[in-house]
């Protein structure tokens, strides 16, 4: 299951929302991360299943938020563009695949598009969302 717990305020507990679950009701994921994959200013949810083949499950947060502060940092690299040519294409996928499941210190240049230090399925999801852009 992928569950979101929202805090209801001081001393008032949590509200649980299940956003995804295995067909049999059990757990079926290797990990879940929050990241702004589509660079729209809000967090999206990515979960990697251990079903075969390994599936990347993505829940985009497309909610409209009013009175949200505007970020002051502008990203310098295009998400998913490992070779820096300004396009997210199959050449970038090849770089991601070459370094898949490796620890890296080169971030985007090795396909670690979320700069987590490891090239993994979350980075693939970032590449996939931005492919062709």
UniProtKB/TrEMBL annotation:
<dbReference type="GO" id="GO:0004553">
    <property type="term" value="F:hydrolase activity, hydrolyzing O-glycosyl compounds"/>
</dbReference>
<dbReference type="GO" id="GO:0000272">
    <property type="term" value="P:polysaccharide catabolic process"/>
</dbReference>
<dbReference type="Pfam" id="PF13517">
    <property type="entry name" value="FG-GAP_3"/>
</dbReference>
<protein>
    <submittedName>
        <fullName>FG-GAP repeat protein</fullName>
    </submittedName>
</protein>
<dbReference type="InterPro" id="IPR036439">
    <property type="entry name" value="Dockerin_dom_sf"/>
</dbReference>
<dbReference type="InterPro" id="IPR013517">
    <property type="entry name" value="FG-GAP"/>
</dbReference>
<keyword id="KW-0732">Signal</keyword>
<dbReference type="InterPro" id="IPR028994">
    <property type="entry name" value="Integrin_alpha_N"/>
</dbReference>
<dbReference type="InterPro" id="IPR018247">
    <property type="entry name" value="EF_Hand_1_Ca_BS"/>
</dbReference>
